[in-house]
Specification:
The protein is of the alpha+beta class and 203 residues long. Helices cover 42% and strands 20% of the residues. It has a five-stranded antiparallel β-sheet with strand order 6-3-5-4-7. Helix 3 runs antiparallel to helix 4.
Length: 203
């Protein structure tokens, strides 16, 4: 259920190394293509790549925490500022994303909770054995992008091509992520119809 450094880890590359371990909770985030200006992302990416070259994986827990403090937190703060089209603040578009996430829930993966924000998505989940996180996220993005672009009579990139993920290390870590998902809309000062939360354990 939680990441175990003594067990095998599958790795794949999507600009950054992504780790996967069967039946382990994973926290994943992806964003709209226009959610952070290109110039800001370029500087962020250069600083991050330099840091990673100086801190090659595998990381111990303090190093991973430092990475997320320096880079993940900064990116999430920019996304929470509501830059770009914020197409997902439209409740119909948010519902399309939610429906795509829940379509194979209990089959290919188990969804613990998620929040659809105006320009990004956070998901806490566990994959079923034999399914790839990369392919699952790709299917979510492809289906929702096609449906939303059709509604808007648009074409082209809807989602940014990358995503971020983190294996959950403990029950305490799990609850920190759950609380982050619940509090993200409040932190971003959103109104009720500007986001969509799924957290059945909170009912």
């Amino acid at each position: 259920m939680f990441f175990n450094s003594d067990l095998p880890v599958r790795k794949h590359l999507n600009h950054l190394p992504h780790w996967q371990q069967d039946s382990v909770f994973v926290f994943a985030t992806w964003r709209l293509a226009d959610s952070v200006p290109f110039e800001i992302m370029t500087r962020w990416r250069e600083e991050r790549d330099t840091w990673i070259s100086e801190h090659p994986k595998p990381w111990d827990e303090p190093t991973e925490l430092e990475y997320h403090r320096r880079f993940s937190t900064q990116l999430e703060e920019w996304m929470d500022q509501g830059m770009g089209s914020c197409s997902l603040s439209n409740p119909d578009h948010a519902r399309i994303v939610a429906d795509s996430l829940l379509f194979f829930d209990g089959d290919r993966y188990f969804i613990d909770s998620f929040v659809v924000m105006p320009n990004h998505v956070h998901v806490l989940m566990r994959l079923q054995t034999g399914f790839s996180l990369e392919k699952v996220i790709q299917s979510w993005k492809q289906f929702s992008a096609r449906q939303i672009n059709q509604r808007q009579e648009k074409s082209g990139s809807f989602w940014h091509k990358r995503y971020w993920d983190r294996l959950v290390r403990s029950e305490d870590h799990l609850w920190k992520i759950r609380h982050y998902i619940l509090r993200n809309p409040e932190k971003a000062k959103l109104h009720e119809r500007q986001f969509l939360i799924y957290a059945p354990w909170n009912q």
